[in-house]
Write a structure and sequence with these properties.
Elements (H helix, E strand, L loop, with lengths): L12 H19 L6 E4 L4 H13 L4 E7 L7 H11 L2 E7 L1 H7 L3 H5 L8 H11 L5 E3 L4 H5 L4 H12 L4 H11 L4 H16 L8 H12 L4 H8 L23 H28 L3 E3 L5 H9 L13 H7 L19 H5 L4 H8 L1 H4 L8 H14 L3 H14 L2
Helix pairs in contact: 1-2, 2-3, 2-15, 6-13, 9-11, 19-20
Length: 404
């Protein structure tokens, strides 16, 4: 955490941006060195687009790879294609659908080798397998969100917690219970309408599940650290409190610095990098993350928070830097994340597998570690409402692993 205490009080934005550009170019150039065929993951988002744009400067005939979905509400591949055309990469795209998912579903336990609940492992695996047909090494944009304030929580957690902090824990619960009375369909339709006017995107945002999760996370949070832990957890029933960084006193730092630090020590290491490593190694593909070079890391820790997050905009300095390589109109849009149509798939193509794993006859052998009644009630509610899809997925992955 000491890296965050070395920030200069007054920083020249243009000098910091130039320094970041130089360090990032150096990192990418170093990681392009390879005896094996090399390419880049290109999702069309800010991070992978910046790495791909810089890499295309240093390497001719660069191959780029993206994964999309036939379900357009989750498909970002069209943006990747436009970026690739602009920077001149040889672009390759695979579309993930129900059939491809079912083909490898029963192998997930072998790929992961542990209960790992991030459902974005699926697109990560498919794009890795697809890329390995052409290259053996790829550069990724991993680490940028944690280092430069890319997650939406960095924007609104300060605003929300600032006001909620005036309430006692019980008052927070009562406040959320009142909000929970508002029908979800009204909230989702209202936010979708805003999305149409602001971003000209007429699509269902699928927010019901996210709203429920968010309300639960606030209700179960006594302080900002618990709020953070709730944000990154499916169920905050226990946590690995023995980690040194979880017992550190972070109150002397700005809230966003605290969250980014915890994300680097926890979410980046235990989720993002683990997911990419398992997915790519399952496909015999090596991944490299230029954002995680020591030079780039040190810059991210030392720069002002206002260069990362301000108002309703995140990754400010990365967006600005990318606009020097790619026209802003090609990437200026809300963050989509690397999500899949999980709620839809669990209620359709994976429903029979869930019924099989969640059957009481199958669960009885795990009664010492799984609350069978709670699982079945959660599954029953999900089939009606589509809520808590992340929790259902976690149950499913755990049982796949246990049944190996």
């Amino acid at each position: 955490m000491n890296n965050y205490s070395n920030k200069e009080a007054h920083q020249d934005y243009n000098l910091v941006k130039k320094d970041l550009d130089n360090k990032l170019n150096k990192s990418v150039k170093n990681q392009l060195l390879s005896d094996a065929p090399l390419g880049v993951f290109l999702s069309g988002g800010v991070d992978s687009s910046l790495i791909s744009a810089i890499a295309s400067k240093h390497k001719r005939n660069l191959n780029s790879f993206s994964v999309g979905f036939k379900n357009q509400n989750f498909n970002e591949a069209e943006y990747a294609k436009k970026i690739a055309k602009n920077i001149g990469t040889n672009h390759h795209e695979i579309l993930l659908d129900e059939k491809k998912t079912l083909e490898i579903f029963d192998q997930i336990g072998d790929f992961l080798d542990e209960p790992f609940g991030d459902s974005s492992f699926l697109p990560s695996y498919f794009v890795s397998k697809f890329s390995s047909n052409n290259v053996k090494v790829v550069l990724t944009g991993d680490g940028a969100d944690e280092l430069f304030g890319g997650y939406n929580r960095y924007i609104w957690i300060n605003k929300i917690w600032k006001y909620l902090n005036f309430l006692t824990h019980n008052q927070k619960k009562i406040f959320i219970q009142i909000l929970e009375k508002i029908p979800r369909v009204l909230v989702n339709n209202f936010l979708s309408l805003i999305n149409i006017f602001i971003y000209k995107k007429n699509k269902d945002l699928q927010l019901n599940n996210k709203i429920d999760k968010f309300f639960n996370k606030i209700k179960n949070s006594k302080n900002s650290k618990e709020f953070y832990l709730n944000l990154i957890s499916t169920e905050f029933t226990f946590y690995n409190q023995q980690n040194d960084y979880m017992s550190e006193d972070l109150n002397m730092y700005e809230l966003n610095d605290q969250i980014m630090y915890l994300d680097i020590k926890n979410y980046l290491k235990d989720d993002i990098l683990t997911k990419v490593d398992r997915a790519s190694m399952s496909a015999s593909l090596e991944t490299r993350a230029p954002f995680l070079s020591e030079d780039v890391f040190n810059i991210s820790c030392g720069i002002s928070n206002n260069f990362k997050v301000s108002g309703n905009t995140n990754k400010i300095i990365l967006r600005d830097l990318l606009s020097d390589y790619v026209p802003k109109k090609l990437f200026d849009r809300p963050k989509m994340g690397f999500s899949i149509p999980l709620s839809i798939w669990l209620n359709t193509i994976l429903k029979s597998r869930c019924e099989e794993f969640f059957d009481k006859k199958n669960l009885i052998k795990y009664m010492d570690i799984i609350d069978i009644d709670l699982l079945q009630k959660t599954w029953g509610r999900f089939k009606i409402t589509g809520h808590n899809s992340d929790l259902i997925w976690n149950y499913l992955i755990l049982l796949i692993w246990l049944d190996r």
